Amino acid sequence: MRKLFFLLAIIVPTILFAQSTKHDSIWLPLKPFVGEWIGDGGGEPGIGKYNRSYQFILNKNFIEIKSQTKYKPTDKHPEGELHEDIGYFSYDKGLKKFKLRQFHAEGFVNEFVLDSISDDNRTIVFQTVAIENIPKGWKAKETYRIISENEIEETFELAEPNKDFEVYSKVKLVRQK
């Protein structure tokens, strides 16, 4: 009985550790995002200050993204503009791909699927498979370029029906935590 207890005491933690390691390894390409970020950027909506956080939630099954951008005043928006969205990275085991879902304060919901990832995991591209509350045929693309452990560049592009992608906004984020 002692031998069985000793054997179980060694094997069970090893099995549990191996399972969590495999689960954690799925997230390696997106793990560099986890943390608090600020940045400057701009594009179609103007020049803005970006605040972003990425954190694991629900037993590390998702990464939650909270984003807020304050745009400077323009002729169109004399008091400036505030943009907020919440997003979630998930891993689709059936597709064996990452997904990204974004929920925007303006009512848009973007569902992206991983389009490509560079061999060194430093450039990650998501493209929409569905966009809610926008005319049919529009597409969006998010490209993340990991510059360093503390810098990420994000480019958001839109394409009207039957047209090529055009940059809508671009931001360079710097890690705070």
Short description:
By secondary structure, the chain is mainly β. The chain contains 1 helix and 10 strands. The chain has one helix at 2-26; strands spanning 35-43, 46-57, 62-71, 81-92, 97-104, 109-117, 123-132, 139-148, 151-159, 166-175.
Give the C-level CATH assignment: Mainly Beta
| Beta strand % | over 45%
Overall tally of domains = 1
* Lateral strand order in the biggest sheet: 1-2-3-4-5-6-7-8-9-10
What value does the Rg take, in angstroms? 20 Å
Please summarize the sheet with the most strands.
10 strands, antiparallel, barrel
Question: What separation lies between the terminal Cα atoms?
Answer: 49 Å
What are the defining features of this structure?
single chain, 177 residues, mainly beta, Lipocalin, ten-stranded antiparallel β-barrel, 1 helix, 10 strands
